Predict the 3D structure of the following.
Amino acid sequence: MNRFIPVDRQTDYLLPPSVDDWLPEDHLARFVVDVVEQLDLSELTRQYAGRGRKAHHPSVLLSLLVYGYATGVFSSRKIERATYDSVAFRYLAANTHPDHDTLATFRRRFLPELEGLFTQVLVLAREMKLLKLGTIALDGTKVKANASKHKALSYGHASRVEEQLKAEVKALTERAEAADRDEAGDGMDIPEEIARREQRLAAIAEAKATIEARAQERDDAEQQAYETKQAEREAQRQAGTPPRGREPKPPETGPRGSDQVNLTDEQSRIMPVTGKGFDQCYNAQAAVDTDTVLVTYVHVTQAANDKQQLAPLLTGLAALPPGLGTPRHLLGDTGYYSAANVHQCHSHGIEPLVAIKRDAHHRPVFERFAADPSTPDTDDPVAIMAHRLATQAGRRLYALRKHTVEPVFGIIKQVMGFRQLSMRGLDQARGEWRLVTMAWNIKRMHRLMAA
């Protein structure tokens, strides 16, 4: 008795197979196609001139990229290979095989249009009754740039190498003059050696100019902060109150020896990363809805600090379509705290719950269940927020932050495998981060629909 299913790779199909039969009904690839087909891709299609060979439709290329990022396949070459090897990718490509250059060009060309598509996905989630903004949690994560930190050049080292190269050029020039008088040569191609050093000198000069421009921006910001502090202290003196603390020192101007620029991606920055010291990174921001864990806003910055990233969030939320609703609460860790940020949230009609200081873990049981403090008699938004964070209801609401936005970053980096950007430059980093989070949203919507 034969106990095994017969294996027959030679018999042809009587009828042509249909790609629609290749996947289960609830497969993620089917959902990606359904979502992309409901998006308005006119901004993409109108940019095709219609000359030459027929192009792959943007809906096909976008579906491949979204599904690729959602499942950890980011390389255009791997996506091309998957259209042959993977049933899901074959289904997405409708049994066609876009080459890797087409996929890479499409991704690079249409990154600016992803902002509108990201919002369209949110609107679609609202129409599917999966999203209505209420409480959002904001946080940032460092994403490795497509550049090595060992390719960074500091201003001090650049100056030393510049002096060395200039001395070598001078010595080579003198050697060339001596060689003209002495016919016996040593086999050295002196003009080539001089040209190589002059090329390096030009690259170093360009790098130093970039560092000096950044230093000038920093000097302007530090000077403005210094003048603001001096004005505040002078106002206190005129009011009869001696200012507390030491007198602020004038900022030091000019580039510092430790100032760096990366020769591979000069717009990336050295940033502290968890458990690894420092790396060449961008700071990727995301605001996540606490009810559905959908990302509602994304932003990428070159600043390692998060304090200045709350204002762009408020501007971005105000630009969302009215049908998505208006957030009632904004949760953020202590990295986003400043009195100015609290006032900005109130001016936008959002109640902030931003940690003022780091709280100790595992608070004593009697402190956790203590009665709420009395409401302060003040209109100061900072005092009102501090009281709200001290209440049991406020602490429960703030506790949503750590199991809302941080798991999203963990899943994107560990499950989806997105730990490093594929493209270089700030604009490209912003577009790729938007593509990653849009893939996360579609993947999350698929799970919500299944639930």
Residues 190-238 form the longest helix (49 residues). The mean pLDDT is 87. Residues 271 and 430 are 17 Å apart (CA to CA). The two ends are 44 Å apart (CA to CA).
